[in-house]
Amino acid sequence: MSALQDVARLVQDQSYLNKGEALPILSQAIVFTEDRQLGVYAEDDAVIGLSVRHCGLSALPESLGELTHLQELDLTGNRLTSLPASLSQLVDLRVLNLGENLFSTLPDRIGHLTHLTQLYVHNNCLTSIPDDIGDLTHLEKLDLGHNELAALPESLGMLGNLAFLYASDNRLISVPETLGNLGELIYLGLTDNHLTVLPETIGRLASLSELRLYNNRLTTLPVSIGHLTSLRELHLRNNLLTALPDSIGHLTCLRKLCVQDNRLAALPESLGDLRSLADLNLRNNLLTALPPSLGNLENLRVLDVRGNRLVSLPASLGDLPHLEKLDLRWNRVSPEPDWLLRLERRGCTVFR
Q: Are strands 46-52 and 95-97 parallel, antiparallel or unpaired?
């Protein structure tokens, strides 16, 4: 097949194949692993998978479009800035990995690949995403991390099957309100951006299990965050939050809440309603007191309040039945309450 021969010649030119050598035949199980892989997978004489990872390629042949049965194409770790126009002929493509290349824009007519379920374009130089990404309605995973994106398109909200969205380490200052249309979204990663605000529509992400927002510039959270009743992890480290909304107490499935390195001066009593919470990190804030309702957190294992301005602690903390670690360092608590000894006798490690 001339397309495979053309690809092989390009790889030979980069000395990853010997002159005249064909692309290796790979088993389906190892075509798309994290290891360096080079080769092709076929079924019934039809090429189903092609992996050309870390081969130094700066271009691909136009003949690539001849591989009309291709379902998985992995081009990770090359020097590609564009793809041949014939890419749009690969209408059976399910998985496209363009990570760790030099793309500043997504390939033309990416929206023609309507059967895509996974698209990876992490670690490139992307400054924008075309609107026609909204045509990829079967997409389940989208990785846009480690680029130079200042905005996401409104059309992102048309990806009704999307379960995983990773857009960390970009230059985002906001996200579109249409993000709230992604009702199947389970994971949302927006860390290491410049976000100052979140839309209220984020509360419509009814399936969301993990929300990562650390290393941004958020000063408030939308009240609607309390509607994320499937949420199990909420990561808010290193923002500019001065308060948490009362509605956070509605997150009854939440097991991990990380709000360290913010500017919290007080906490809502509703935190005590998070009966599933196992890990609560409040380190390095401006707290002078903790709400007595924290004593209701019957599943809490770890409570970290070091680096605040606490002068006293609620006695209710001594009743936490499963607490394994309590970190009180760099506060102003004096004298120590008697119930700390009770916690230690029950096996809790207390850092003073």
A: unpaired
For residue 184, give Cα distances in angstroms to 193, 206, 237.
23, 8, 25
- What is this structure's pTM? 0.95
CATH of the domain at 283: 3.80.10.10
Q: Is 288 part of a structural domain of the chain?
A: yes
Per residue in 142-175, pLDDT (tens digit) is 999 999 999 999 999 999 999 999 999 999 999 9
In this predicted model, what pLDDT tens digit does every residue of 3-41 receive, in sequence order? 999 999 999 999 999 999 999 998 876 655 666 689 999
Q: What is d(CA 3, CA 9) in angstroms, rounded to the nearest whole number?
A: 10
DSSP SS3 for 197: coil
Q: Is 317 exposed, middle or buried (0-12, 13-18, 19+ CB in 10 A)?
A: buried
Q: Is 337 exposed, middle or buried (0-12, 13-18, 19+ CB in 10 A)?
A: middle
Range of the domain at 288: 241-352
For residues 79 and 58, is the Cβ–Cβ distance under 8 A?
A: yes
What's 58's DSSP letter? S
